[in-house]
Amino acid sequence: MEKGQQSKRHLVNTSNFIDIWSVQCGECFKWRVIPTQEEFEEIRSTFAEDPFVCSKKPGISCDDPADIEYDDSRIWVIDKPNLPKTPAGFRRKLVMRKDFSKMDCYYDSPNGKRLRSLAEVARFLDKSPEYEEDILVSDFSFTLPKIMEDTIPPDVAKKVI
DNA sequence: GCCACCGGTGGC
DNA sequence: GCCACCGGTGGC
Which nucleotides of C are covered by protein (CB under 7 A)? Predict the structure, then answer.
């Protein structure tokens, strides 16, 4: 969803993690901040069939000013729609590399094991009958968001080693 | 050319 | 010895 409409995005600040989760209204195109990653993932999981609109946020309508503006005061990264919701007990993490060249995605399992790929997830579930019954590999995705180059400050982007 | 994946390692 | 982080690559 690079076209700037109806896409969901989250943000990073100059640290290496995402600190604001945000979605764009499919009607007025304003950005609405979503308080938690969990809520963001819920919206994202059905975004294609069920686009976000301002009125889904309690007490908010398209008449209200945007929560946040898409500009270079923050670095923005854009998720693909319909990524699976992270299974209960797991945590999905995205880490920005220092040079902003790419992000890394991993899941932390309930017992603290870090999973770095679908292959590792599959092996983990095979060894964990307690999860295998109701958690599938397809509940995980390592698809990375697109880093919006136009929101990276020039002094940072052009940093030479 | 991109990206999912994984090996290596430096710093703790 | 671990693990956060980075580089490289194979497959598409």
Answer: 4-7
